[in-house]
Design goal:
The protein has 257 residues and is α/β, with parallel strands linked by helices. The chain is 43% helix and 17% strand. The chain has one domain: TIM Barrel (Alpha-Beta Barrel). The chain has an 8-stranded parallel barrel, surrounded by 5 helices. It binds the ligand O=C(O)c1ccccc1NCC(=O)[C@H](O)[C@H](O)COP(=O)(O)O. Keywords: Amino-acid biosynthesis, Aromatic amino acid biosynthesis, Decarboxylase, Lyase, Tryptophan biosynthesis.
């Protein structure tokens, strides 16, 4: 089993346990305020920045300690981020609902529910948490699951960010009608990370689609190259979180755009 399969297998068990405490119907019955538009925010500047809040990852290990989700997110907001991605997974990324709620309270930017979605429960949960967008990883889903989850996310007024890593996944994302596609430069099976993934796949994105380049983005020059390749936005975590002031690092990353 590769790491993505392992995370998703564990996630299915976790969600079954969580459903025993809060059912899908309970989540769907909760009244929720509408949240700011994620895609509109990404398209409002020459290069949208989705800045990530995560403590650790399987590829990088511990990234930042001590860790203040709200402090980091406020820094991102003050320094030009368009949206914040918050990791929901605790086991592998050290995140969770507490981090998401803390960030939600601290900032007004749209938030991405960055999770390994394998069950409709998570989509309803994203809405109750105040997310604007939900990640769907094509490599972790069947075509049927992808279509169902995409419809459910849109049906409750949220926006799907559909993540791909190769040509076949890009075609699957397009076939199902994705209009916001994230090209992950990291192979989630091997952890090999190269911006060439975006350079190779960007031209496949349909006209009108919002294109996000994800992972391994470190320097202002990377951002210029990704924009030239057709990316409208970038998703960045580790390179910001390893700096003393992640907000200032975010501003620097966008400094050549
Ligand atoms: O990053 C990992 O190790 C990882 C492993 C398995 C599944 C997902 C994983 N990462 C998710 C991401 O791709 C990143 O959190 C995101 O794109 C930001 O990447 P980076 O700027 O390189 O932190």
């Amino acid at each position: 089993m590769n790491i993505l399969e392992q995370i998703c297998a564990d996630k299915r068990v976790e969600i079954e346990e969580r459903k025993k405490l809060v059912s899908l119907a309970d989540l769907q019955a909760q009244a929720v305020e509408s949240r700011p538009d994620f895609v509109e925010a990404l398209r409002a500047t020459p290069m949208g920045l989705i800045a990530e809040v995560k403590r650790k990852s399987p590829s990088a290990g511990l990234i930042r300690d001590p860790f203040s989700p709200s402090g980091i997110a406020r820094g991102y907001e003050a320094n030009g981020a368009s949206a914040v991605s918050c990791l929901m997974d605790h086991t592998y990324f050290g995140g969770g609902a507490e981090d998401f709620a803390e960030v939600r309270e601290a900032i007004g930017l749209p938030m991405l529910y960055k999770e390994f979605v394998v069950d409709s429960w998570q989509i309803a949960h994203a809405k109750t948490m105040g997310a604007s967008a939900v990640l769907l990883i094509v490599g972790a889903l069947t075509d049927g699951e992808l279509a169902t989850f995409l419809k459910e996310i849109r049906g409750i007024g949220l926006q799907p960010l559909v993540e791909v890593h190769d040509k076949e996944e890009m075609l699957r994302a397009i076939d199902v009608g994705s209009d916001c596609i994230g090209i992950n430069n990291r192979n989630l099976k091997t952890f090999v990370t190269t911006l060439d993934t975006t350079f190779e796949l960007a031209a496949m994105a349909p006209a009108g689609c919002t294109l996000v380049s994800e992972s391994g983005i470190k320097a202002p020059e990377d951002v210029v190259q990704l924009k030239e390749a057709g990316a409208h936005a970038i998703l960045v975590g580790e390179s910001l979180l390893r700096e003393t002031d992640p907000g200032v690092a975010a501003a620097h990353l966008l400094s050549l755009i």
